Amino acid sequence: MDNSHRSSIEVDRGRIGGDRWSEIGWHALSESTDWLEYIAQFHRDRPGITEALLQRSRDEFGDNPYVWLIGALPREGMVLDLGCGSGPTAPGRSGWVGLDLSRAELRAAQVKGRTRVVQGRAEAVPLTGGRAAAVTASMSLMVTDDAGLVLTEAYRLLEPGGVIVILLPARDPVSWADRLRYAVLLVAVGRRAVPFPHPEVENDVLSLLAAAGFDMVADDARRFGYPTTVRSQADLLVDSLYLPGVPAARVRSARFVARHWGDASIGIPLRRVIARRPAA
Ligand SMILES: C[S@@+](CC[C@H](N)C(=O)[O-])C[C@H]1O[C@@H](n2cnc3c(N)ncnc32)[C@H](O)[C@@H]1O
After folding, report:
1. Does some domain include residue 16?
2. From residue 151, how far is each of 37, 60, 213, 277 by CA, in Å?
């Protein structure tokens, strides 16, 4: 029997959730690219690492980035998280559904009791449109193959008047000490920037949202301090970076650098963009 057909019908009937779903890898990946292979391996080796990092990071109010993100989501209705990873946006939301490419990440979500997960691509979500009260993409839009397509999908999935909340890496706000630390870290790994397949998304996100049909609601940035006082915390920071092609010796150097920042925290600048599908 054709699994993809059967799966779509079950989703349409709203029978999403439970272990069975994470076992269905029906949604074929696009043609294999170096990046897809790298990211699949990365998340297979360290599921939940983004959540582990960001849960420990705090803004000036003492909140982590997920508290900030979740604060912009409606309390009721279906919330669809595209590139959900281990599902940090799920707590407190009975209507939460997570989608991710990585089976290992979805397993990590399930271990935390976030069971309503679907394995698939955010560029072609196997769910019926017009039903989600909110769509979110936390630290995932810039790593997908085609951010414009993901936003078009988000628009299709939302009910009229529904919101999209996007969390992205940003350049600011950071302190001078943060800038210096990142510069030293990048020298250690031999890169000019942390690579994402589409870093331009940070600049283009507003025009991509407009092109998909969204109305802008808000666009803010905050600095989240991540503590690197303990060796394991410093290592987690380095290990959470996508570093394709960086030799192991350079990764060890970066860990060495981060371990010696002393009694400090490094700022992670993040941007939260909120937009709305116009009411019908
Ligand atoms: C940096 S992690 C963020 C995970 C989670 N949202 C969080 O905030 O902790 C990026 C996630 O996007 C997923 N991902 C990358 N490309 C994807 C795509 N095209 N479709 C669905 N998920 C994708 C990865 O497997 C990974 O779990």
Report:
1. yes
2. 23, 30, 9, 11
Residue 58 resides in a domain: yes
- Nearest CA, atom 10, ligand 1: 140
CATH of the domain at 142: 3.40.50.150
User: 133: domain range?
Assistant: 3-169+197-222+269-276
Domain count, the chain: 1
Q: Does pTM surpass 0.85?
A: yes
Six-digit token string for 149: 């397509």
Q: Are 146 and 247 in contact (CB under 8 A)?
A: no
| C-alpha of residue 106 to centroid of ligand 1, in Å | 10
Cα–Cα distance measured from residue 166 to residue 72, given in angstroms and rounded to the nearest whole number: 10
Q: Which amino acid is at 71?
A: G
Residue of the CA atom closest to atom 26 of ligand 1: 85
CA angle 175/181/184 to nearest 5° reads 145
Say yes or no: CB of residue 153 within 6 Å of ligand 1: no
Rounded Cα gap, residues 142 and 105, in angstroms: 18
Using CA atoms, how far apart are residues 84 and 199, in angstroms rounded to an integer?
Answer: 19
Ligand 1 centroid – CA 101 distance (Å) = 7
Handedness of CA 209, 210, 213, 218 (dihedral sign): positive
161 found inside a domain = yes
Structural domain includes residue 101: yes
What would the pLDDT profile of 177-192 be if each residue is shown by its tens digit?
999 999 999 999 988 8
Q: Which residues contact 33 (CB under 8 A, 6 or more apart)?
A: 145
Of the given ranges (14-23, 209-218, 232-241), which has the lowest mean pLDDT? 14-23
Q: Rounded to whole angstroms, what are the CA distances from 79 to 38, 91, 100, 121, 137?
A: 28, 11, 14, 17, 11
Hey, whose CA ends up nearest to atom 1 of ligand 1?
Answer: 139
